[in-house]
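@channel sequence for tomorrow's demo:
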Amino acid sequence: MIAAPDRLAAGVLTINLDRDGRLLFADPQLAALNVRAGGAIGQPLAVPALAMIARLAVRLGIVVSRAVTVADDAADIEMWVRAQPETDGLRMAVSGWREIATWRPDGLRDPALGLAPWPGNWRWETDAGLRLTLISPAAGARHGFDAFALLGKPVTTLFAFDEDGDGLLPILSALAGRTRLEDQPARLRGTGVPLLLSAAVRSDGRGAFAGLIGTARSVADDRLEEDEPLPLRFTEELDRALRTPLARIVANADSIHAAAEGPIGSDYAGYAADIAGAGRHLLALVDDLVDLDAIERPGFVVEADTIDLADVARRAAGLLAVRASHARVAIVRPDADASLLASGDFRRTLQILVNLIGNALRYTPPGGQVMVEIVDGNLAGVCVSDHGKGIAAADQARIFDKFERLDPTEAGGNGLGLYIARRLARAMGGDLTVESAPGRGARFTLALPAG
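C-alpha cells (generated this afternoon):
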C-alpha cells in the first residue's frame, strides 16, 4: 500500500460499477486495494466491505452511506463510503481514508527498523511471492514512474538486479539464507538510474517467509552531503511536473463546485471545494519549496532597485481584497498619495507583504482590521498589524524558523512563509521583525534600506 499508517488520504476517491456489479473504474488507491483483495477491472468488486455496501444500495435502490473498516496487508483502513445507484450502474465515493497499523507480535513490528538510514532513501516492500506491495510515493515523483501502477507486480518490474564485484547477486543469497540484504546493485527499469538496495526479511506468525521490506537509494546520493541543496534541474522538474496538473485539478474542482455543467448534490459540491482548497495549498507549497531551494543556494542575491514601498503595500493589500471581504476583515492600506522610496526588489517585496497581510487576515477575527502602514526613518519600513491572539515572547524567534508552526492543528500554512520572507528581506539588506504579546495581536515590520 502507498499511504503510511495513521495518514489521512486527501480528497474523495471514486469507484464505478456496472449494472452487474463489475468494476469499471477506481481511483488508483482503491484499485490497488482491490487488486490486493484479488480483484481486477471487469470483475466483481473484491473488497468485501465495499461489495456489501454496493449490493445493499442496489437492492434497496437508495443511497447508502456508512463508515467501514477494511483489513489490508499491514494495516486496517478506516473510510467513509457513499454508494449511489445510477441508471447504468453504481457510483461509490470514498472519503476519510485512514490507515492504522495493525498489531504484530513482538519482534515482527518492522524488520526494516534495522536498515541503515540514508539521505534520500525510499521504501519498497514485497509479499511472499516477491510482488510489490508498497513503494514510497516520493520515489515515483523523483524518478518519474507511477508507483500505484506497479503495486501487485513482480519486484523485477521495478528493479533490474546487477551482479556485485564478485559476480554474484546478493539478493539470491539473502533469499536462500533468509538473511538481510545489503547493497544489492540495481537499476530502475525504464530509466536505468543506478541504485543500491537493502532489505530485511519479513516472517509471518509461523516463521515462514512473508516478503521483503527494503530501502533504495540512488548511487548519486552517495556523493551528496546531507545538507547540500538539490540539483537545480530537479527543482525545476519538480515545479514543472506538479504545477500544471495541480492547476488543472483546482480548475476542474472549482468548475464542479460551481455546478458549471449542471446541478449536482450539495455533498459533491462540498467535496469539490475541499479538493480545490487542497490543490491550492499544494500549489503554494510548490512555490515555497522552489523559493526555499533558491534562497538557500550559495551566492543567492536579490537585485536591488528603487521601489515605492507605499505603492507595493497598496498592491499587496489589493491582491488580498477578495479574501479579506470573505473573512469580513478590513485592510487599512496607505493613502493613495503616500510614497516612501526604498532599495529592494519589487517582486520579492510584494511577495513578503502578501505573506504578512495573508497571515494577518488568517488571525484577525471577523469585523476586525489589518493595518498596513509605512514607517519613515533610518530604514524605510512597512508595518502589518493584526488583532489576533498574539505571539508569546518565547515563541517570537521560533516563527521565523524553517517548517515551524506554533499550532500545527490550525488550517493553512506550511511553516515556510516567514522563514522565506525574512531570508528575502535580509538578502535585500533589510530585515523582518515582530512585536507581539498574547491577546494583543502582532505587528510585523519589513525594513529596507532607504531609496
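heads up for whoever presents: The chain has a mean pLDDT of 79.
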